[in-house]
Amino acid sequence: MHVLEQFRYCPKCGSSHFVEASEKSRKCENCGFEFYLNPAAAVAAFILNSKNELLVERRKLEPAKGMLDLPGGFCDMGETVEQAMKREIKEETALDVVDMKYQFSQPNVYRFSGFDVRTLDMFFLCKVADETQLKASDDAAECFWLPLSEIHTEQFGLRSVRQALHTFFDGVLG
């Protein structure tokens, strides 16, 4: 089932004449409103400590509960991706970002509440003020530093993060 098929009624006027207009939109035949399903913006961080270990988290919630992840999450309305990156790292790890550099992006499908949320995940290389202040919070069950030699992408729950790890390590170690 295409994700737009789940939208049966116009969100503006409530009409049931809300039909497919294109692969990425539905249009109301009653009021003319057209809805485009664009990806949600999300961020994730590569953070290396002084021992060249990667900061990873264990997911507290679905999707991929119990699997590994990178610090990050969805961008809120009205914030930049840089602000979102700082906020998410602070919420999940208690660490303060002092520098960040955009690396690359990956499309992703994030299953939430029975709905496939299409995302555009943007990955940053971040530096933090004091790596010893690490404390898991928010939707991170635990946070820890993992030696690069012990990174196994199959232990990470989200497809975009697995792909990003390959891309990142090709660039860092390649």
Automatic annotation (TrEMBL):
<dbReference type="GO" id="GO:0005829">
    <property type="term" value="C:cytosol"/>
</dbReference>
<dbReference type="GO" id="GO:0019677">
    <property type="term" value="P:NAD+ catabolic process"/>
</dbReference>
<dbReference type="GO" id="GO:0006742">
    <property type="term" value="P:NADP+ catabolic process"/>
</dbReference>
<dbReference type="InterPro" id="IPR050241">
    <property type="entry name" value="NAD-cap_RNA_hydrolase_NudC"/>
</dbReference>
<feature type="domain" description="Nudix hydrolase">
    <location>
        <begin position="38"/>
        <end position="169"/>
    </location>
</feature>
<dbReference type="GO" id="GO:0046872">
    <property type="term" value="F:metal ion binding"/>
</dbReference>
<protein>
    <submittedName>
        <fullName>DNA mismatch repair protein MutT</fullName>
    </submittedName>
</protein>
<keyword id="KW-0378">Hydrolase</keyword>
<dbReference type="InterPro" id="IPR000086">
    <property type="entry name" value="NUDIX_hydrolase_dom"/>
</dbReference>
<keyword id="KW-0460">Magnesium</keyword>
<dbReference type="InterPro" id="IPR015797">
    <property type="entry name" value="NUDIX_hydrolase-like_dom_sf"/>
</dbReference>
<dbReference type="GO" id="GO:0035529">
    <property type="term" value="F:NADH pyrophosphatase activity"/>
</dbReference>
<dbReference type="Pfam" id="PF00293">
    <property type="entry name" value="NUDIX"/>
</dbReference>
<dbReference type="InterPro" id="IPR020476">
    <property type="entry name" value="Nudix_hydrolase"/>
</dbReference>
<keyword id="KW-0479">Metal-binding</keyword>
